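Entry under discussion copied across for reference:
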Amino acid sequence: MSRLERAIEFRKQIDSNLKATRKLVRQDEMTPEELLELVDIYPKWEEELEVKVDELYKHEDGLYKVIQGHTTQSDWTPDVAQSMFVKVQPTNVIPIWVQPIGSTDAYSFGDKVTYNGEVWESIWVGENVNTAVPDGDIPYNRYWIPVV
């Protein structure tokens, strides 16, 4: 595939993602109450649950994704056990960008975030995951692109 063909394919993917993004809700445009209503549809985290990777659980006022399967216990709550859970937003909510602490909560290709009032999409397709600040690589834009 030529460089021009790759650029055209990449542009098509960006256009497709832009259309999908318009159907999403930005966290920075929601009230805490509206966000909590979305979180309430997920099962509540409890002790002694067998949890599997990628399952979602509500804990206190947040939503957490399991990143390591295990049996829950009182001292491994989602807000504390960062090697087992990562805080996420409900489906169709674009979260506010937060500096990742490592590979477990870093951004992947296609992830969208809001940062400085704009929506950004992660375009990093490397061996490592994206921990860069959305506007920290301008003018090169190797990690994020603004979504218009």
User: Anything to note?
Assistant: The helical segments are 3-21, 32-39. The beta strands are 25-26, 50-51, 56-59, 62-66, 70-71, 85-88, 93-94, 112-115, 118-122, 144-147. The chain is about 20% helix and 25% strand. The chain has a mean pLDDT of 84.
